[in-house]
């Protein structure tokens, strides 16, 4: 039997498993609009993978309003955005799993490789339940289990530890620049889904292109480099 050379694969949730990254954007854009701040999809790249409160700070900075509100006012704004985001989540079904993801998960599991999920979202379990994926991952790290948001490596290192995986033999899949930085700071192999993730070890344009044989081939090249 071929020796197993990958311990685990750890997925990001928002923007990789499902397109909830877009719902985050719509909810933030509405809150920003109410504050007189205009944000677009390019700015939104900076919010991906970043915690709720850190995202709010980035938006306030964009409008030069970072010193204009108390902590309690900021908490109220973040809650308002979250209520709006949760309205979108009510419509989420298993049909909203991104193309190629279920096939990829099946192919990884066939080889007996563990899969984990690393999301800084406090809504991660709601999203997983809506997609009927709550029993799919061997371990889920969400906002409740870590202190630091991506790009800090804490979240991916926690996933590796709980999966009993060596980070250097583990693959992370991300759609966010902060997420790729977190994977690389963990010394893992980084797969980036999107067009702006230059630091990824292997890049694809969409989840449809996430083919297990190709990912393994790229990982093998990286490990033997
Ligand atoms: C990340 C998203 O997964 O979760 C970010 O990429 C989001 O856009 C963050 O801000 C926090 O999510 P939530 O659901 O806790 O507000
Ligand atoms: Mg993401």
UniProtKB/TrEMBL annotation:
Its EC number is 5.4.2.6. Belongs to the HAD-like hydrolase superfamily. CbbY/CbbZ/Gph/YieH family. PANTHER family: 6-PHOSPHOGLUCONATE PHOSPHATASE, HEXITOL PHOSPHATASE B. It comes from the Bacteria. This is Beta-phosphoglucomutase. GO terms for biological process: carbohydrate metabolic process. Substrate binds at residues 12-14, 28, 47-52, 55, 81, 119-123, 150. It catalyses: beta-D-glucose 1-phosphate = beta-D-glucose 6-phosphate. InterPro entries: B-phosphoglucomutase_hydrolase, Beta-PGM, Beta-PGM-like, HAD-like_sf, HAD-SF_hydro_IA, HAD_sf, PGP-like_dom2. The active site is at 12 (nucleophile), 14 (proton donor/acceptor). The gene is ycjU. GO terms for molecular function: beta-phosphoglucomutase activity; magnesium ion binding.
């Amino acid at each position: 039997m071929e020796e197993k050379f990958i311990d685990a694969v750890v997925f990001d949730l928002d923007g990789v498993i499902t397109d909830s990254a877009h719902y985050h954007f719509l909810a933030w854009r509405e809150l920003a609009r109410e504050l007189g701040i205009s944000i677009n999809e390019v700015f939104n790249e900076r919010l991906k993978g970043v915690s709720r409160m850190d995202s709010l700070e980035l938006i306030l900075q964009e409008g030069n309003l970072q010193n204009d509100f108390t902590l309690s006012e900021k908490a109220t704004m973040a809650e308002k955005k979250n209520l709006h985001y949760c309205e979108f989540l009510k419509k989420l079904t298993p049909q909203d799993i991104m193309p190629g993801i279920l096939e990829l998960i099946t192919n990884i599991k066939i080889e007996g490789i563990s899969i984990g999920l690393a999301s800084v979202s406090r809504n991660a379990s709601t999203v997983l339940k809506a997609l009927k994926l709550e029993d799919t991952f061997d371990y889920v790290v969400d906002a409740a289990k870590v202190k630091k948001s991506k790009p800090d490596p804490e979240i991916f290192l926690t996933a590796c530890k709980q999966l009993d995986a060596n980070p250097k033999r583990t693959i992370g899949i991300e759609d966010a620049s902060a997420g790729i930085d977190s994977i690389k700071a963990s010394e893992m192999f980084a797969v980036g889904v999107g067009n702006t993730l230059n630091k990824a070890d292997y890049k694809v344009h969409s989840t449809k292109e996430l083919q297990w044989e190709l990912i393994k081939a790229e990982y093998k090249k990286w490990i033997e480099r």
